[in-house]
Design a protein that fits this description.
10 helices, alpha/beta, 19% strand, 14 strands, 38% helix, 2 domains, seven-stranded parallel beta sheet, Rossmann fold, homodimer, three-stranded mixed beta sheet, UDP-galactose 4-epimerase, domain 1
Chain lengths: 319, 319
């Protein structure tokens, strides 16, 4: 039985892939420092005898080296995933993304683990000149500390593959949504509407275009590409062949909740420093391999709202 | 009078740019930890009243923040510059390149310094698919820890420019040679021939093609582009419109030294893990701006040999 090590196992996407791997019959060692992950997200996994959880921080290299013992594949999904606060805390992306990934790779090398699956981001394309943006777009100029750190991680992973005969599957995600989604637009809007049903402040002008992928489609794609591609470094964009404007998403959410708040826009056309008004990825490469998303953006948004409605505990705690 | 801060001021290229800036009448605060730099390289600068030297390590952020006080422009040339030993000491590129650059940027932010000139490398293109390789080549897959770390630095610099209203001039160098060159092929071959005049071991098959730029041409280009371009992020390839094979370089060196050693090749077609058999950059962007190199590859190689012949002290000390 293969042993998978999942970093960020109590996070949004990390907990879903943990559940999926367990369902497929493999064992999972889940690692999370619970700084943004939730124990509730691994409640199901914890009832499975093939799951073991360790609470450690990826910054602790020695701990990580010993935790990785006996692993076959590392799914490295732990990250500082919020692009917005880079300028307020520049060290976060460096430590939690770049240095943490270095530590993961060192721990793999130490334990002879040869395969890594990594969650990158469409933000690595900076302000892309080509839409939809293919994997081989022109050399990007980074516009966010988050994108810069994920580019640094991709570079480290590829260089380790070359130097130490490892193999990697790198996925550049658009925004992902669905059950357990606890940051980003839908979460923010829902939270604001919970506090004030009649007024919604919206960062940006509402016309930022976004391409969202439903989390189960994302997990399908990751597993499918891992099983069906075999280069040294396998890089895939993940997204849907469509996009929406933030304002459309707001309309879907409000219709679902039967609310009609006044909308107040602020902050100009770009949401935040380093925000990219349009991330829209060319997913032909993984589509040619045989994967297709099953869920539309609207369905994904509504599934997320539905989840939040049934799990309002996510707004308490530290959020 | 503008105050320049030069990191790596006692290194090969750093000491040349220090001399040039002083010659142009500005003041220089030189920073070096002398781990690979040489005090002899700043002998001339130290006699200039506009030069001040501080021996600190860029890893020490607090020291760096206070050292940067009052600077106008940072020339960040300190780096682990040897691509070959990444796999033996993976932490070196991470610390001396990525984290050191982060510290430089943080110290600039802390002191309100808005301009940075950075020495990147043609290695950021990985194994390029296009020759000569332009700045906008397709998104590269990194093949060396060195290239990965310089890509990480470029990303950090660009993201800081976006987030904190800074401006950057990033130069992707081919191999540079000339006076004070104390690593790389010419240095290695000269050193080996000094120990054994009749036999020369050559890493790789001798057919690795390399494009070399003479250090004074490199400094000309850096100053010229800094003075004549004004984007937020200015990226330029630096090199000559020509290349040579390692074997040609060996012939020039041996002819100059009047030696005819037996050549023994080892290590296959690639010199070392992550070595790129061919780095050849498209320099049209900076040529259009108005810069042209004046020195051929052969002249550059011979100037380097001449320098080594008159400065054999470089082979003593820690080398």
């Amino acid at each position: 039985m293969s042993k998978y090590i999942v970093t960020g196992c109590a996070g949004f996407i990390g907990s879903h892939i943990t559940d999926r791997i367990l369902k497929l019959g493999s064992s999972v060692l889940g690692i999370d420092n619970l700084s943004t992950g939730h124990e509730k997200f691994i409640e199901l996994a914890l009832r499975n005898k093939n799951f073991k959880f360790i609470n450690i921080d990826l910054i602790d290299l020695e701990c990580l080296k010993s935790a990785f013992s006996g692993g076959d594949v590392v799914i490295h999904f732990a990250a500082n995933a919020d692009v917005r606060f880079g300028p307020q805390n520049t060290r976060k992306d460096l430590e939690q993304n770049t240095i943490a990934t270095y530590n993961v790779l060192e721990s793999m090398k130490f334990n002879g683990i040869k395969k890594i699956i990594f969650s990158s981001t469409g933000s690595v394309y900076g302000e892309a000149k080509q839409f939809p943006t293919p994997e081989e777009a022109c050399f990007p100029i980074q516009t966010s500390l988050y994108g810069a750190s994920k580019t640094a991680c991709e570079g480290l992973i590829s260089a380790y593959c070359e130097a130490f005969d490892m193999q990697s599957w790198i996925f550049r995600f658009v925004s992902i949504l669905g059950e357990r989604y606890t940051h980003g637009h839908v979460y923010d809007f829902y939270k604001k509407l919970r506090n004030n049903k009649s007024l919604l402040h919206v960062l940006g002008d509402g016309h930022q275009r976004k391409s969202y992928l439903y989390v189960q489609d994302c997990i399908d794609a990751v597993i499918f590409a891992f099983q069906n591609s075999n280069e040294k470094v396998n890089i895939y964009n993940l997204g849907v062949d469509d996009y929406c404007e933030v304002i459309q998403s707001i309309t879907w959410i409000c219709d679902y909740l039967q609310l009609s708040p006044t909308l107040e826009f602020y902050g100009g056309t770009k949401g935040w420093s380093g925000d990219n008004p349009f991330i829209y990825l060319d997913t032909n490469k993984i589509r040619k391999l045989g994967w297709t998303p099953k869920t539309s953006i609207k369905e994904g948004v509504l599934k997320t709202v539905e989840y939040l409605k049934s799990n309002e505990w996510v707004f308490n705690e530290r959020n």
